[in-house]
Every structure is written in structure tokens, then in C-alpha cells.
Specification:
Elements (H helix, E strand, L loop, with lengths): L12 H9 L3 E6 L36 H13 L6 E6 L9 H11 L6 E8 L6 H13 L2 E8 L3 H6 L6 H13 L3 E8 L6 H11 L6 E6 L2 E2 L3 H8 L7 H14 L5 E4 L9 E3 L6 H15 L5 H6 L2
Parallel strand pairs: 1-2, 2-3, 3-4, 4-5, 5-6, 6-8
Antiparallel strand pairs: 7-9
Length: 313
């Protein structure tokens, strides 16, 4: 499916959903009260060093409230922007398969019934928390309601992965993608640009590896240094050079050009709560970031996947 045009030189999730459902589709972020295996000691402790105490669910619902309350509260906010939309029930905070199967079934079965306009369930998790029984259940659920798994990778480079305390290796990630795709479950990969000591070449290598996997979508984020995170504390103690807006624009543009044409791009930048963000402050201007990348692609007159296709001629 080619969703590219003169305005957007890459496949956006907005255009993809609009073509598929003929309506605006937006995520309602829910908090199922999960933790992470590298926080609770299952595989490590302390969590990913960049991650906030909210487990990357900074905009998700209140975990102390029922799912229905969370859903309705956020839905009302979204309806101020888009009155006639469709919804994705989105389990965002922490690792959303890190619980006994019985608990996962209770949460996910409830989630898909919260509103008749829900068209998909999206579950953010880690590659090391997908045992066979969970994948079998997700496969069954996928036959009744489309399931999308958002899988954290961040980087393919083990030295960086160890530095940020991911506590899994690349093989674990690749195997998880393969096992999910064997059950025809959609996979969206998360990567982070600007991790400590990573060069532009290393960030491009992450994209080139992702191209070899059977994935359907990608989220590209800039590293946010936030208050109450280990990395934020480290940065305050001993700052290191961060990517500028110009650096980020250059890197993401090239990543898009290297990315396979069939992969849907869900994000090319991310958000951090303003009151928690230490740096880089330019990331607050999300639309400026997106516009700079669009302008650069138009100036080059190149489209998603052009570099990748040339390399295979």
C-alpha cells in the first residue's frame, strides 16, 4: 500500500488508517497496572535508564481507575479534536504482557468491549515477555479483534542496550517478531535516536536491521532526558552532547529513505511531559520537528525507501 504523496514522502499512520477505515482513528491509552521485568527483578532491576516512573505511559490513564473510567475520560478529551472517530484500545504503560495469562485475558477481553467503535487493541511490551501461552491467546484474540503488538527495540547495538539496561539481546527481539508473525499478529517496532555514544551510522544500522524483519510499523523517537530517571540524573551530573534539531532532522530523513517502502511510520518524534523534560528542549516543538523532516524530504525530492531500493539494484 503506497500512501505517499507530494506533501508526505513517507507512509503515515494517519493516511493508512484513513484509507483502511475512511475515518480518523486514534488511540485511547490505558494503564493496566503492569510493571516491567527489568524493574521487578525478573531479568534485572532499575528499569531502562531513560524511562520515567510512569513506564513510558506518561499520557496513559490512571492505573487506580477502572479501564472503563480511563477510556471514557480520555475519549472525551479526544472528541474535542475529532468528533467522529474510531478508537484503538492502547495498553501503553510499562510491559503489558508481564502478568499471568488469566490477568491478561481479563484486561484485554474487557478492553475490546469498552466501546462499539473500538477497531483494534494495541499492546506495548518487551520481546522477553511473550511466552508461548500468551502468543497463543493473542492469536485467538487476533481472530476476533485486530491485535497490534508494539515491541520495544530502541537499538540493535548491544553495548548501547546494556548501557540503558534493556536486559535482553537482539536475538530475543528477532525471535519475538518471528513468533508473533507466525500467528499473523501485527508488529510495530520502537526505536530511539540520540542514545548515548551512538553515531548516525549506528542509528542507520538499526533501520537496516529492522528492514530484514517481518514488521508492519515503526515508531521513531528522540531520546528525552527526564526528571526522576536514571539517565536524567546522569546527564545533570555529567552532561554529554545531545542531538540538535538539525542533527535529528538529518538522521530521521536518512532513516526514512533507508526504511522499506511497505512499513507504516507511526511516529517520527515523540512527546515528554513539559514539566519533566530536562533536554533537548526543541523536542517540545513536535510540529516544527515534523515539518523540518517533511521539508528536507521535499527538498531532496526523495521518498521512503529510495535508498533501500537503490542498494538492492
Amino acid at each position: 500500500m503506497n500512501l505517499m504523496n507530494d506533501e508526505k514522502h513517507y507512509n503515515t499512520i494517519h493516511n493508512y488508517y484513513l484509507q483502511k477505515y475512511q475515518k480518523k482513528v486514534y488511540k485511547i491509552p490505558l494503564n493496566g497496572g503492569f510493571t516491567c521485568p527489568n524493574i521487578d527483578g525478573t531479568v534485572a532491576s532499575g528499569g531502562c535508564t531513560f524511562c520515567s516512573y510512569m513506564g513510558s505511559g506518561d499520557f496513559a490513564g490512571n492505573k487506580h481507575e477502572p479501564l472503563k473510567t480511563q477510556f471514557d475520560t480520555i475519549k472525551k478529551m479526544m472528541e474535542k479534536k475529532w468528533r467522529d472517530g474510531l478508537y484503538i484500545a492502547y495498553f501503553q504503560a510499562n510491559t503489558n504482557t508481564h502478568a499471568p495469562l488469566k490477568r491478561l485475558k481479563e484486561l484485554f477481553e474487557e478492553a475490546i468491549t469498552l466501546d462499539p467503535k473500538i477497531v483494534m487493541i494495541s499492546i506495548a511490551t518487551r520481546p522477553d515477555v511473550l511466552p508461548d501461552d500468551v502468543i497463543e491467546y493473542l492469536s485467538d484474540l487476533n481472530r476476533r479483534m485486530p491485535v497490534q503488538i508494539e515491541l520495544g527495540l530502541q537499538t540493535i547495538h548491544q553495548e548501547t542496550s546494556d548501557l540503558i539496561n534493556r536486559a535482553h539481546d537482539l536475538k530475543c527481539f528477532d525471535d519475538a517478531v518471528k513468533r508473533l508473525r507466525e500467528k499473523n499478529i501485527e508488529v510495530v517496532v520502537h526505536i530511539i535516536n540520540g542514545l548515548p555514544h551512538e553515531t548516525k551510522e549506528m542509528m542507520i544500522e538499526t533501520i537496516k536491521h529492522v528492514n530484514t524483519l517481518d514488521i508492519q510499523g515503526i515508531k521513531i523517537h528522540m531520546l528525552h532526558l527526564m526528571e526522576k530517571t536514571k539517565m536524567g540524573y546522569q546527564y545533570k551530573q555529567d552532561p554529554w552532547p545531545l542531538l540538535s534539531l538539525e542533527d535529528y532532522t538529518d538522521i530521521v530523513t536518512d532513516q526514512i529513505l533507508w526504511l522499506r517502502k511497505d512499513i507504516i511510520i507511526h511516529r517520527i518524534t515523540g512527546d515528554a511531559p513539559s514539566d519533566m523534560l530536562i533536554a533537548p528542549l526543541w523536542t517540545k516543538k513536535k510540529f516544527v520537528v515534523m515539518n523540518e523532516i517533511d521539508k528536507r524530504l521535499r527538498k531532496l525530492n526523495l521518498y521512503q525507501g529510495d535508498y533501500h531500493e537503490k542498494s538492492h539494484l
